[in-house]
Predict the 3D structure of the following.
Amino acid sequence: MAKSNKPIVWSLFAGGGMLSAFVTPVLIFITGLAVPLGLMSLDSLSYDRMLVLAQNPIAKIVLFAVIFLPLWHAAHRLLTTLHDLGLPKGRIAMTLCYGAAALGSIAAAVVLLRI
Amino acid sequence: MTEPTLQVEILRYRPETDQDPAFQTYTVPYRDDWVVLDALNHIKDNIDRTLSYRWSCHMAVCGSCGMMINGEPKLSCHAFLRDYYPNKIRVEPLNNFPIERDLVTVTDDFMEKLESVKPYVIPKQERAVDEGPHLQTPAQLNTFKQYTMCINCLLCYAACPQYGLTPDFVGPAALALAHRYNLDTRDAGREQRQEIAASNEGVWDCTFVGECSQVCPKSVDPAAAIQQTKIASTIDWYKALLNPWGKR
Ligand code: SF4
Ligand code: FES
């Protein structure tokens, strides 16, 4: 049997899964609840602060990771779930899922690089 | 007092006479200490001798009595009538396998896959008898002990939607057994097993639905074995990428 190249896709999926499980909920909590509800100061997400953050090269890498990996995770999960539901893993489904993740990743990279 | 009874609806198929499988309903006495297998034995002994099914131990050890009971893969010697009474029980052969006759399925596909992962200790070097036994600590045994509990009952294959969709998929029990020998300190056969386990048809066809571990009567947790194999195979893959001169 052929040696598989699935580990590339799967390691992105696994990494994205870890981030989605551990980091994404915290980010949603901070940006969606804590700051709007006043549990944290409104100022902590101010434009100026965020701009400085996004200009830092290390922060850029971190921001890219928390966007890019969960996108790949979602694409792969969606594809396999569609397959579980009986949809053949055809070229169209693959292109749509991975294509959306690729576009999102490129968009994130471009935006981050331009800041 | 009339004895309470229960209806059992069984999918029958006798290839020499039946065009297609069809249900046949039997009425059996209800006893609260009876399992579905007892009901089948009652039918075979007293009502219809033509009914075919596999069983041997009647104690969840031999792994031969797996069937779909009300749509769920179960050992029929482990499924109590009292959990269904007074409702009708529907008994069918295991999903995802061709029917040989009545509740008997053709399991050759699994047997071939099981063989392909070499489910036995492959030592690095043959050990002479006078070298004494292999010693293994309880901690070393614990890393794989749960995977040794598999009784090859195939409930996990009947539960796995991927095996149903992708018949080439090596499947839960065989992959769990490959993992079991890979983790054994006496074994040096991982590389040979990886040929199958790390191929596309191996662990990578698994989408981690997790049904296999849900239905396993022996708490083997094949889904965990498969995910651990995915991690180990991914590490191998990156190692090979970073060290292209290393041994393949
Ligand atoms: S892993 Fe569990 S369900 Fe699957 S064959 Fe072994 S004992 Fe049966
Ligand atoms: S008869 Fe042996 S496992 Fe059920």
Remarks:
- Chain B has a mean pLDDT of 95.
- The radius of gyration of chain B is 21 Å.
- Chain B touches chain A through 21 residues (CB under 8 Å).
